[in-house]
Design a protein that fits this description.
Blueprint: H1 2-18, E1 29-37, E2 43-50, E3 56-65, E4 74-78, E5 84-88, E6 95-97, E7 100-107, E8 116-123, E9 131-141
Length: 144
């Protein structure tokens, strides 16, 4: 049922982004997912909805809770076509507030990509603690 709803939304967005209603998706758009590491797990994933990546740049905000301070995180966005974009490999240039980290990243408009469901994949060294990673992508029209 959930996948059907996503498929319908993706179909609508594909038409709105490419058709005569393209202006419909020119405001503030965002996609959010939470990637959750269970205790002892080293891999986790989540899903994002991509809004016309040919006409929007992406401001990416990554918030990480309770990840061991010595541990780095490998975070990748995977498009429907299978293209992988590395968005985080270490906490270099991230803000640290106690056990919470905030990292800002950016991706340009991607003319070869399409509207649809993208995946966020995360990998860490196995850990004895749980961890939550929130990924928010704000889609901004090119030229704004």
């Amino acid at each position: 049922m959930r996948r059907t709803g996503l498929a319908l939304l993706v179909g609508f967005l594909s038409g709105a982004c490419a058709g005569p209603n393209a202006g419909l998706l020119m405001g503030d758009l965002s996609s959010t997912t939470q990637v959750w590491f269970e205790e002892g797990s080293s891999e986790a994933s989540g899903h994002l909805l991509a809004f016309d990546p040919t006409r929007h740049t992406m401001d990416i905000s990554i918030s990480i809770d309770t990840l061991d301070a010595a541990e780095d995180l490998d975070l990748v966005i995977v498009t429907e076509a299978g293209t992988r974009y590395q968005i985080l490999r270490s906490f270099h240039q991230c803000q640290i507030d106690g056990d919470r980290r905030r990292c800002e990243r950016w991706l340009p408009a991607l003319p070869a990509e399409t509207v649809g469901g993208w995946r966020v994949e995360a990998r860490r060294m196995a850990s004895d603690s749980t961890a939550a990673v929130d990924v928010v992508v704000k889609w901004k029209p090119v030229g704004s």
